[in-house]
Design a protein that fits this description.
Helix content is 30%, strand content 19%. It has a domain of 37 residues: YefM-like fold (3-Layer(aba) Sandwich). It starts with a strand and ends with a helix. It contains three helices and three strands. The protein is α+β, with helices and mostly antiparallel strands. The longest helix is centred in the N-terminal third of the chain and has 9 residues. The protein has a three-stranded mixed β-sheet with strand order 1-2-3.
Length: 81
């Protein structure tokens, strides 16, 4: 893995980003000490991203969901403070 110093990274940032996007990650160092690793993100392909329904069948909502805790809430509002 290639290591570049901060000055070189600033000077050749466009080239280094293209290199990382191709899968060739690199390390940016300061005074020879590695600081960060730059690598391509593994983003999903177009049309591959699915958000709605991604947890279908994994959650169960009780039938009385809209009434859950109503007695406790009522007690808290009715009580004298």
């Amino acid at each position: 893995m290639q290591t570049v110093n901060i000055h070189e990274a600033k000077t050749h940032l466009s080239r280094l980003i293209e290199q990382a996007a191709r899968g060739e990650s690199f390390v940016i160092a300061k005074a020879g000490k590695p600081l960060v690793k730059v690598m391509a993100l593994s983003a999903p392909e177009a049309g591959q991203q699915q958000r709605l329904g991604f947890m279908a069948g994994q959650l169960a909502v009780p039938d009385d969901f809209d009434q859950m805790g109503s007695a406790e809430i009522e007690r808290l509002f009715d009580s004298e403070i």
